[in-house]
Design brief:
This protein is of the alpha+beta class and 280 residues long. It has 2 domains: 135 residues; 88 residues, no CATH class. The strands form 2 sheets. The protein has a 6-stranded antiparallel β-sheet. The chain has a 3-stranded antiparallel β-sheet with strand order 2-1-3. A hairpin with a 2-residue loop joins strand 1 and strand 2. The radius of gyration is 23 Å and the shape is globular. It starts with a helix and ends in a 5-residue tail after the last strand. This is Heavy metal transporter.
């Protein structure tokens, strides 16, 4: 009898410990603090990871190329250049070679790129880069080191080449030429989203688009590569703009699922970008 009692007590203790372990594991799995926020662009079997702010800047650079009607190669050159110059971050300082360099492309006011405030504005800086790039004869077929160097006049021209595969992957996704190619893993939004802020941010880089706000959603009647360019731009900017869901051409990206793009079975309809609801 005493042995049976000890067995029962031991079994109950083990059950409690097992239950506690399952509970802890479940809590840890659901914990937002354990989510590593990042964005990944995939081309074929290769994938390239960027931090969320870097991906957002790659999206800005690429969107402006789309607005200007430039080929994807232009975006590849620009993204690779910005990665080498600033790690795709809008930095407010230069280096020993260019102490007055600023911004995504480390452009120098003393070299005629604009004022410090202008070159520190990502939209201005990106357009300034493209203004110079399109004047380079045959840049579309040039090696990336030659095309970038023709614009930047860097002390280390060969350094641009190391970023070409990453830049090509992000440019292909963000120009809409590769569908479902860009995914961002994010924690839940901690602030309510504003659909009007999404429209403003989109307009700043893509120009005027047929956007309509419906509640927490922005709807855009777009098709083809333009639809995918806008949709994947939205994913790249989901952290900053509190975007929770993006629907395009029968595919959906959901921030909470964290499973990447999923097919929904549809084939048409507007691009729909949904932002987070106010906290209750």
């Amino acid at each position: 009898m005493r042995r049976l009692r000890r067995t029962i007590i031991l079994s109950l203790a083990l059950a409690l410990v097992a239950g506690a372990i399952v509970t802890v594991v479940t809590v840890l799995q659901r914990s937002e603090t354990l989510v590593t926020e990042r964005c990944v662009a995939v081309v074929g079997s290769d994938s390239y990871e960027l931090a969320t702010d870097q991906a957002a800047n790659a999206a800005l650079i690429t969107a402006i190329s789309v607005q200007r009607g430039l080929p994807p190669r232009a975006a590849t050159i620009a993204v690779a250049t910005a990665m080498q110059e600033s790690k795709l971050r809008n930095i407010g300082h230069g280096d020993e070679v260019g102490p007055d360099s600023r911004g995504l492309f480390q452009q120098r006011p003393s070299q005629g790129w604009g004022t410090e405030a202008q070159v520190s504005d990502p939209v201005y800086a990106t357009n300034a880069f493209y203004d110079h790039l399109v004047k380079v004869p045959g840049y579309e077929s040039m090696a990336i080191t030659d095309a970038a160097q023709a614009v930047q006049h860097s002390a280390y021209p060969e350094a641009y080449a190391q970023h070409e595969p990453m830049a090509r992957a992000y440019a292909s996704a963000l120009t809409g030429n590769s569908q479902r190619a860009l995914d961002c893993t994010l924690r839940q939004a901690d602030t309510a989203g504003d659909p009007n802020a999404v429209v403003d941010a989109m307009t700043a880089v893509f120009g005027s688009l047929p956007a309509d706000t419906q509640g927490r959603a922005v709807e855009l009647n777009l098709t083809g590569t333009q639809a995918w360019a806008v949709a994947q731009w939205a994913v790249a900017n989901a952290k900053a703009l509190s975007i929770t869901e993006v629907d395009v051409a029968g595919s959906k990206w959901n921030r909470q699922d964290r499973n990447g793009w999923q097919e929904t079975g549809g084939t048409s309809g507007p691009v729909t970008i949904t932002v987070s609801a106010p906290k209750t």
